[in-house]
Amino acid sequence: MALPWVEKYRPKSFADVVDQEEAKYVLASWICARFRAPKDFCTRWAKKKDKEILDARAVLLAGPPGVGKTTLVHALAREIGYELIELNASDVRTAERLKEVVGRGLREGSLFGYGGKIVLFDEVDGLHVKEDAGGLEAIIEIIENSKVPIVMTANNPYDPRFRPLRDISLVVNLKRLSEEEVVEVLRRICTSEGAKCEEEALRSIAKSSLGDLRAAINDLQMYLSGGRKTLTVDDIKRVGERNPQLSMFEILDRVYRARWFDEARAISFNPSFDWEQYFIWATETIPVVYKEVETMSVAYDRLSKADMFIGRIKRTQEWELLPYALELALGGVSQIKNKPRLPPFIKYGFPQRLLILAKSREARKRRDALVEYLAQNLHVSRSYVKSEIIYVLGALAKSDSKIVERLSKALGINAIDIKTLL
């Protein structure tokens, strides 16, 4: 099997990492201030003296996929002669397993004469705080007690769940690569592989990758698979271009910045587009983008009409009409008369509704268990339990504590929680 080109052409040194100079300076400055590193490396790269950098317990590299987060850590370890202990936090998820793997790696001596060790927790935002058995708490504990450098990577570390991790780490943002930078790397790979690649073909790959260099390299290898030594624009058209995965932040930004109706509507064709989530996010972000009351009102009016249409679609099950509702929800919200000029950067906050639902998830689970138990034992519907019986039980429980105790014992739910639910 051929070696993946992503690995074959992975940068071997700090200097080879494409266009992330600011991140390199911050990471190198932190390493050189807190740990041992070669003098010539520190002289070249350690150019930051900020107190925030020097005092940080760990570094969290943040940015979209394929911009070089993991590669930068690999290059750093190679450059300063450190052994890299790498864990993918979305695979090694439990506290016990994390401590076991890291502890073993730090206890065992190196067979290859490394000058030290560096721990990389890759994709820490892949952890589920509630379900992954203390994984986040374990990482925080390892950071607080570690005597070796710890670096983490994440696509989106700004989820409120990861605030404890951000509080003890220095967050370093890596930027999305430009089309020209991606093309330059692809051009070098073509030369190295002895392939003749049309400039427009490389630009097509770079454009569809949206700054994800890893995706662009994988696409190039796919197009040149089977020993092919030429690549034209027609080859790409025959196979089809990549349909990129987008975060909800990116989807929103594309909708609001769309210049034409069709450009906004096309976002619904993206495989990562979730129209139900979009309605929740759009409801809370319209006031962030459209400051003027009149513009805001038009956007909300169109979004509400789209929501009404979807309600009718659900009732009648005529799902073939959904594209028309989405046209109004996307193009209607985007294309507004006298639309204001948008700033280069808009801070889209995480919807409060989703945060509140996340916080109340456990309480809702307990209430559902209570409703299900009563419905089964009383041989009535769940809706009847919710609308009638819960209130009757609540009134009875005030005068007879045994009702709460029996329900608590049957469901395995704390009696205080049962009282709260009633």
UniProtKB/TrEMBL annotation:
Q: Name one GO molecular function term.
A: helicase activity
User: Which residue intervals define the domain AAA+ ATPase in the entry?
Assistant: 55-176
Q: Which InterPro entries match?
A: AAA+_ATPase (IPR003593), ATPase_AAA_core (IPR003959), P-loop_NTPase (IPR027417), Rep_factor-C_lsu (IPR023935), RFC_lid (IPR047854)
| SUPFAM superfamilies (UniProt xref) | P-loop containing nucleoside triphosphate hydrolases
Any idea which UniProt keywords this protein has? ATP-binding, DNA replication, Helicase, Hydrolase, Nucleotide-binding
- What is one Gene Ontology biological process annotated in the Swiss-Prot or TrEMBL record? DNA replication
Question: Is Membrane among this UniProt entry's keywords?
Answer: no
Q: Does the keyword Transmembrane helix apply?
A: no
Chain sites annotated for binding ATP: 63-70
Q: Which family does it belong to?
A: Belongs to the activator 1 small subunits family. RfcL subfamily.
Main function = Part of the RFC clamp loader complex which loads the PCNA sliding clamp onto DNA.
User: How does this polypeptide assemble, per the annotation?
Assistant: Heteromultimer composed of small subunits (RfcS) and large subunits (RfcL).
- What name appears for this protein in its UniProt entry? Replication factor C large subunit
Q: List the top taxonomic levels of the source.
A: Archaea, Thermoproteota, Thermoprotei, Thermoproteales, Thermoproteaceae
